[in-house]
Amino acid sequence: MKNREGFDHRVLIVDDEPLNIEVAAAFLEELGAIKIHYAKDGESAIEGVRRHDFDLILLDVNLPGMDGFEVCRLLKKNPKTADIPVIFMTAEHGIEVVARAFEVGGVDYLPKPFSGEEFKARVKTHLRLRKTLAELREKQSRLADLSITDPLTRCCNHFFFQTRLKQMLEHGKEGWLMRVHVGRLEKIDLLMGYRKADAALREMAAILLERLYRSDLCGRLYGAHFVAMLPGRKRAEVEEIIRQILQDVAEKKLLKENAEIEIVAIRIHKGDTPVSLMRRSNKLLLRKGSRLYLIEE
Q: Against a cut of 0.70, is the pTM above it?
């Protein structure tokens, strides 16, 4: 996939000999769609990596000042640059040099003078591997997201919410638990169809996600029931959040005209468990009656 500059990959060549840079750059250009950067010493290479995201680094061993081994060691020490593949370039072919190159984190080495076909084959292989690993990470990230997310509302699912709530309670954190119920959902489903019922749930979820902070957590328990964990909040803040949610609901025609939104909030006490909090909040929902919302200390 090309980036915004129209290149598939970005490669850094680090060498203090201009001729070596020219030869390496010429071979890279033959591969096409590669943005080439240069550095003539270790310090410049480190600075360049801070400014750009590279897919591959071609690193000379014998550099002025900091040598290539030390540059590689520093790159691998930094979590932000540790996964960038480094191919060493060296005129020294001794086993000690090659072993040291792999020891400090290099993925391959290219002997000087360069052989064009070997150079291009090794570079192409590692760029392909880099792309494959990036695609795998993206797929893993999507799968991980799917495993904790309710597919309809994009809130976290019941299992993940309960896990995070349990962790919060185990760490003794104070806060509030808020329950939101979209009442009359069955009527919407019966009279307007399941797509409208799903749309009502998505609208409610969007309102909750918009009004809560990043430190909060919103989940869908089941059916028309949502739950939110509000760590470290004061009662006045919770009341303001509820008022904002109800105001947003009043601006949504589908929810305003067809649903009945019930909101309750309970303070989390020391010794509470996920089960006890759900029981307390269920009882509060039953007691709410015609009130807009109900809060219990």
A: no
